Amino acid sequence: xxxxxxxxxxxxxxxxxxxxxxxxxxxxxxxxxxxxxxxxxxxxxxxxxxxxxxxxxxxxxxxxxxxxxxxxxxxxxxxxxxxxxxxxxxxxxxxxxxxxxxxxxxxxxxxxxxxxxxxxxxxxxxxxxxxxxxxxxxxxxxxxxxxxxxxxxxxxxxxxxxxxxxxxxxxxxxxxxxxxxxxxxxxxxxxxxxxxxxxxxxxxxxxxxxxxxxxxxxxxxxxxxxxxxxxxxxxxxxxxxxxxxxxxxxxxxxxxxxxxxxxxxxxxxxxxxxxxxxxxxxxxxxxxxxxxxxxxxxxxxxxxxxxxxxxxxxxxxxxxxxxxxxxxxxxxxxxxxxxxxxxxxxxxxxxxxxxxx
Amino acid sequence: xxxxxxxxxxxxxxxxxxxxxxxxxxxxxxxxxxxxxxxxxxxxxxxxxxxxxxxxxxxxxxxxxxxxxxxxxxxxxxxxxxxxxxxxxxxxxxxxxxxxxxxxxxxxxxxxxxxxxxxxxxxxxxxxxxxxxxxxxxxxxxxxxxxxxxxxxxxxxxxxxxxxxxxxxxxxxxxxxxxxxxxxxxxxxxxxxxxxxxxxxxxxxxxxxxxxxxxxxxxxxxxxxxxxxxxxxxxxxxxxxxxxxxxxxxxxxxxxxxxxxxxxxxxxxxxxxxxxxxxxxxxxxxxxxxxxxxxxxxxxxxxxxxxxxxxxxxxxxxxxxxxxxxxxxxxxxxxxxxxxxxxxxxxxxxxxxxxxx
DNA sequence: GGAATTATCCAAAGCGCCTTGGATGTTCGA
DNA sequence: TCGAACATCCAAGGCGCTTTGGATAATTCC
Lengths: 357, 357
Fold this sequence. Notes:
2 copies of one chain form a homodimer. The first copy, chain A, is built from 14 helices and 12 strands. The first copy, chain A, is α/β, with parallel strands linked by helices. In chain A, helix 2 crosses helix 3 and helix 7 runs parallel beside helix 8. The first copy, chain A, is elongated. At the A-B interface, helix 1, helix 5, strand 1, helix 6 and strand 2 of A face helix 1, helix 5, strand 1, helix 6 and strand 2 of B. Strand 2 of chain A pairs antiparallel with strand 2 of chain B. The structure holds a DNA duplex (30 and 30 nucleotides).
């Protein structure tokens, strides 16, 4: 498929400088904005570079400068056929905006947890990246120590609970958001509130659980373990959990759900039980603002704690690039406040049909 | 954050060969499996490399060999805040398996259509990739000609309709799958069948539309334009479309839906209308087998045409790497057959409540 | 006008790897 | 025992870029 035209396409410094009758040094300096070149030659060089569609060979540039101009995203998966959290794609879409703005590329990997360590060591030894984003931090997470040992700059999307170490992170206020949401349900008169959560070995889910419990306890309510479920963020998880809970003796009158996808399963279970969301049953979800699940509008479908994951991606990337540029900034942190948005899925408590029947 | 330990971590060929008392040539050859080195030294070298956690500097290697050892995925988006099709993440997760198996890295970009051309030209000029996967092909798609001109190896995930040119592609049988699904609905007695489709400027949606029409026409049915909707694959699209259609005078008794996400909206609209899926209304979806929407099990929720996007990713990547390795294979093509899977969302036609009332 | 700046530009080294074209030592057949 | 064939290893050049340390010409200052 490669043909003769290719050689025209891929011009290099040497050719460019020969065409211009200048040295490689001068051309390089002209293009990189060094002062030792006159404004007139700089213009001439830039024009020629543009016309020749010249871009420095990224590999050669990296070799010479020692900078990979690439950021790695290593997505942890349990197995190769594992669930891929839809949040990651949205986050990456955001981060990628920042990267292209600053001339960086994005390298993506999926790593099973068992070879996560070797993955990190490998990409560093290969000089593949200048830094990484750590996804899906766990309550305790060995990646912190590992990355510090390797000396690879990183930003965590989320936080690690069981550590006193410092590190760069960007996170939303999981705990207070879920506390606030729970409080809203309590204020509406709900007492039997179910939490349909993500895997609580992961920080975000654990913190949401804590926030949920905070609110219950502050209001003198006891939590019911059978109304607390924790699993991967799938529709099935939501459906099966809600179905089972609704059929039980102590059916909840309200659900607090950790993601939109899960809520779709919950919604389905509720309507299959012949109940109406926002009337018989209240639901609050956490809304990551995924682009294909639109929960906005004048009156959103779901009452929700909303925090844009895409924006988090943008900001995380900015933080990382800044960290790489100015190591003395370490550590940087940023807490994003979610918004509690009233939708049509919440309403005052009322005795449920099923219990009346 | 980088500290003294780093230098220990990042060993290079020179150091390694000095440690071993061998030349760089020999060490390089030993590690790359050349025959000019004795088995005993090879063992010795491999051991030392492993112990020193030596990995060749990817940038230097690329420069020397001319191979980037990287594949690019350029995801087209209308605007930076655009919907990111969930299918892409799953596809990429699959492709990534193949890449890491063969020592390749995956470079990801999101490109607005207006600067798609410059994106491709740029990554080629930069020598950033050895090939690319083309996502979301359109009915007519300028990327084909562009990539051929540039001479960059590529594989299209899907097909381009309006072209006679040859190119590498991997696709599912969109047209026949949707024809088959439509036929099933017709066989069940349905005559008013709605198609809730993706954007029909995209090939996959257009082909599904054609398949849908094929079946209608073969059975002497005329299509009703008001029962054919086409938009981005969001839940909202499904919900609003189905709500409107169900409320109209010629409400459909069956829906053919282009994705699981959209179907969730359709399902919601149906249950809000007080109708039961699989009884009052039949629904067939196309199921990309996304990991967080589980539509498997003994009796899946939705009757569906299923084709795993993740597997497509694996195979597309294999095809591309093979193409890069053996250019004479051009063009390669692969058609994946989707499976029609019976779920509980379809049933024989019966007069609808709404029309009876 | 001559020395000291300043403005421009260049030659060459080096980043870490692969690879060509020998060099050296070993083994084998005659 | 000697040359040929082979096995084993090495020195050095080159991939395309950045960057150091001048060189040359133009300008300024006394």
